[in-house]
């Protein structure tokens, strides 16, 4: 271990980095700039909400969402440049008479991250809107509202003048970015077998004209970007959600599952299963994939007192090369630094930096 830092609140959004620092927030509403080398805090910015997605670095700005408010800070000293409050009532989940704010159900741990396209910051909201903020001023210059204001937990993708987004009902949308006209939409399941099923809660990626994404669904649906038609579907035999952010390298798709406890490698062209690594932990977050490794975190969605782990696999065959045990679940995406170290957060609020060989 190179260093660790305790922030005392759950970390779900993976860290992002520049040459010297990482930037990450926690569910307590605190957002940090931390020195890459030694783990010392450069500055901390406090909010009233929960940070449940990774931040975006653009120029000298770090952008993130907390409790339905969007913040743009100067990355050097953490000073507020602008913020945008949706001004809407917080979503909540009620259990045994207790209200839990900013979540839709007990497993709603992933909020939409942001992307940059043509000087605007794009993200999806809990109230079914896709917003585009001017980087420097925060002015909303782009807006699409989904029918029914269905919450968005997926991170949008823009390519070749089209924006792709997925909603909590499992519908994928493709809009023209200039005209905002809907080109197509595709529902990813026919029937909802239980209440928490179906929501799209991952990043999108495009590979060879096909759209890949994770969802609360045991079927992995791969769609053609041109018309939204299915190219192929992989069905998990154990019924676990294939929910992690997908990664494609050398025509191989890597995606993690929740209740199947598995990291899968599939042929990105036809969905053929190449290998699977099954352990005893749920997987929710994006893996870091290199020429040699697949690195991902795992934990227990049902028992907050259980341990977590960071796992390193051989990319070619899925064999386990190393495991680092943590005192709490790891549901944030690991950040690989120059193939020499990996940084990630855990559910007890600890940030770890490990050396890897």
In short:
By secondary structure, the protein is mostly beta strands. It has one domain (3-355): Methylamine Dehydrogenase, Chain H (7 Propeller). The protein has no helices and 34 strands.
Q: Mind sketching the topology for me?
A:
Blueprint: E1 3-6, E2 16-17, E3 21-25, E4 30-35, E5 41-46, E6 56-58, E7 61-66, E8 69-74, E9 80-85, E10 92-95, E11 98-101, E12 115-117, E13 120-124, E14 129-134, E15 140-145, E16 157-159, E17 162-166, E18 171-176, E19 182-187, E20 200-207, E21 210-215, E22 219-224, E23 230-235, E24 247-249, E25 252-256, E26 262-267, E27 273-278, E28 288-289, E29 293-298, E30 308-314, E31 320-326, E32 335-337, E33 341-345, E34 350-355
Antiparallel strand pairs: 1-34, 2-3, 3-4, 4-5, 6-7, 7-8, 8-9, 10-11, 12-13, 13-14, 14-15, 16-17, 17-18, 18-19, 20-21, 21-22, 22-23, 24-25, 25-26, 26-27, 28-29, 29-30, 30-31, 32-33, 33-34
List keywords for this structure.
four-stranded antiparallel sheet, 34 strands, single chain, globular
What does this structure look like?
It contains no helices and 34 strands. By secondary structure, the chain is mainly β. It has a single domain, classed as YVTN repeat-like/Quinoprotein amine dehydrogenase (Methylamine Dehydrogenase, Chain H, 7 Propeller). It has a four-stranded antiparallel sheet, with no helix packed on it. Strands 2-3-4-5 form a four-stranded antiparallel sheet, with no helix packed on it. Strand 8 and strand 9 (80-85) form a beta hairpin. The mean pLDDT is 98.
């Amino acid at each position: 271990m190179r260093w660790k830092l305790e922030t005392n609140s759950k970390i779900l959004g993976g860290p992002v980095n520049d040459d010297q620092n990482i930037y990450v927030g926690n569910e307590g509403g605190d957002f940090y700039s931390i020195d890459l080398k030694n783990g010392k805090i450069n500055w901390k910015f406090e909010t009233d909400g929960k940070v449940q997605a990774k931040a975006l670095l653009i120029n000298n700005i770090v952008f993130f969402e907390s409790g339905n408010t969007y913040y743009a800070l100067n990355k050097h000293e953490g000073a507020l440049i602008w913020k945008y409050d949706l001004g809407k009532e917080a979503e909540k989940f009620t259990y045994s008479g207790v209200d839990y704010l900013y979540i839709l159900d007990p497993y709603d741990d992933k909020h939409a991250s942001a992307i940059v396209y043509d000087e605007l910051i794009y993200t999806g909201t809990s109230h079914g809107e896709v917003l585009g903020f001017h980087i420097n001023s925060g002015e909303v210059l782009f807006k699409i509202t989904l029918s029914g204001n269905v919450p968005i937990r997926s991170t949008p993708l823009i390519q070749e003048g089209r924006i792709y987004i997925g909603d909590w009902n499992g519908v994928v949308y493709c809009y023209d970015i200039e005209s905002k006209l809907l080109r197509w939409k595709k529902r990813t399941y026919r029937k909802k077998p239980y209440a928490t099923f179906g929501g799209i809660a991952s990043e999108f990626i495009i590979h060879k004209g096909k759209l890949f994404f994770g969802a609360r669904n045991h079927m992995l649906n791969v769609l053609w970007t041109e018309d939204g038609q299915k190219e192929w579907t992989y069905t998990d035999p154990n019924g676990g959600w294939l929910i992690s952010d997908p990664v494609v390298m050398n025509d191989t798709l890597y995606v993690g599952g929740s209740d199947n406890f598995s990291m899968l490698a599939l042929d990105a062209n036809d969905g053929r299963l190449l290998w699977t690594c099954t352990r005893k932990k749920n997987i929710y977050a994006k893996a870091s994939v290199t020429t040699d490794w697949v690195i991902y975190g795992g934990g227990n969605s049902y028992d907050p007192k259980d341990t977590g782990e960071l796992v390193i696999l051989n990319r070619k065959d899925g064999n386990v090369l190393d495991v680092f045990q943590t005192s709490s679940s790891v549901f944030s995406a690991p950040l690989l630094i120059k193939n020499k170290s990996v940084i990630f957060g855990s559910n007890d609020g600890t940030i770890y930096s490990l050396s890897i060989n």
